[in-house]
């Protein structure tokens, strides 16, 4: 029986979001977790269509984000996943479908009470059916 924790790590490509990886490495050994790195590509539609070039470059950027994170987690079992859509909705759906034990995210750097942890993180915390760890910078 697999006793490893399943961890979902949504990343947006910022250095701030990479702090989740540092936290993971400090708290979990390689043999304790299976990690899925996730990037959601949010594309603004123009006239209800996505330009092919925009989609290609967005997918390429997403792959680079996930590859960079994977490099930082050398020795850990990693899966990478990217998708298109609204970040919070896609994170919640992935967490529910794949039955993750923990979602690890970083807080927002925006100011103000309403943006203390960020709108995506806030929605995930409020709606997740699992533990959500919010990592400070």
TrEMBL record:
SUPFAM superfamilies: Adenine nucleotide alpha hydrolases-like. This is Predicted universal stress protein. Signal peptide: none annotated. It comes from the Bacteria. Residues 5-135 form the UspA domain. PANTHER family: STRESS RESPONSE PROTEIN NHAX (PTHR46268), UNIVERSAL STRESS PROTEIN UP12 (PTHR46268:SF6). InterPro entries: Rossmann-like_a/b/a_fold, Universal_stress_UspA, UspA. It comes from Clostridium tyrobutyricum DIVETGP. Belongs to the universal stress protein A family.
